[in-house]
Design brief:
The complex is a heterodimer of chains A (114) and B (115).
Chain A (H helix, E strand, L loop, with lengths): L3 E4 L2 E4 L5 E7 L6 E7 L3 E10 L2 E4 L6 E7 L2 E6 L8 E11 L2 E6 L3 E5 L1
Parallel strand pairs in A: 2-11
Antiparallel strand pairs in A: 1-3, 3-8, 4-5, 4-9, 5-6, 7-8, 9-10, 9-11
Chain B lengths: L2 E4 L4 E4 L4 E3 L1 E4 L5 E7 L5 E7 L5 E4 L2 E4 L9 E3 L8 E8 L10 E2 L3 E6 L1
Parallel strand pairs in B: 2-12
Antiparallel strand pairs in B: 1-4, 3-9, 5-6, 5-10, 7-8, 8-9, 10-11, 10-12
The chains are: A mainly beta (114), B mainly beta (115).
Chain lengths: 114, 115
């Protein structure tokens, strides 16, 4: 258990509304990530963070923004949700050890945009 | 760039059969390699990992060996159970960059085990 909590776990929202997903970690890891999972695409990186207020784009960042004002929280915001953003969103952290980095995932947030 | 290729399936086997799920990768340098498992409605769980050539990762009866000469990390299990039914993802992360690159995933292999 890597101490990752995502909220909400399930959400249905309307097209054009803003949505924020929250990822909370309890173990002070430096790197945090947001991925989305879609059939036929596997998991794709949206954004990641390497410290408080330090974030960068991933492979599929268009339409998403992130913020990290505290080490333990990493927020993903859809400013104006679209149907193409219906997906399962996973937060992850990177644990650095003697044998390299290992990435652990939260339980996921199922988002439906109608 | 980095990439991971794995058979997508679905792969359907009978209980107690031998399992192999192929995974090959393209990466510069010496990446770490992982297998994750996702049960229906759940998140991704780390199944096993290997960080250098010829390392063997193992967990819950599953094994995979890091083969640099063939750029492969095939997942094997000698006798599968119905409870192994899940989606399996092969992934890699570079060992440079301190974590900035995250993981590069294959598209996942859906495994179905029939009683």
């Amino acid at each position: 258990d890597a101490g990752i909590t995502q909220s909400p776990r399930h959400k249905v929202t309307e097209t054009g509304t803003p949505v924020t997903l929250r990822c909370h970690q309890t173990e002070n890891h430096r790197y945090m990530y947001w991925y989305r999972q879609d059939p036929g695409h596997g998991l794709r990186l949206i954004h990641y963070s390497y410290g408080v207020k330090d974030t960068d784009k991933g492979e599929v960042s268009d339409g998403y923004s992130v913020s990290r004002s505290k080490t333990e929280d990493f927020l993903l915001t859809l400013e104006s949700a679209t149907s193409s953003q219906t997906s399962v969103y996973f937060c992850a952290i990177s644990e650095t050890g003697a044998r390299g980095n290992t990435i652990y995932f939260g339980e996921g947030s199922w988002l439906t945009v109608v | 760039g980095n990439s991971v290729t794995q058979m997508e399936g679905p792969v359907t086997l009978s209980e107690e059969a031998f399992l192999t799920i192929n995974c090959t990768y393209t990466a510069t340098g010496y990446p770490s390699l992982f297998w994750y498992v996702q049960y229906p409605g759940e998140g991704l769980q780390l199944l096993l990992k290997a960080t250098k050539a010829d390392d063997k990762g193992s967990n819950k009866g599953f094994e995979a060996t890091y083969r640099k000469e063939t750029t492969s990390f095939h997942l094997e299990k000698g006798s599968v159970q119905v409870s192994d039914s899940a989606v399996y993802f092969c992934a890699l992360t570079p060992n440079s960059g301190g974590g900035a690159d995250g993981l590069t995933f294959g598209k996942g292999t859906h495994l179905i085990i029939q009683p």
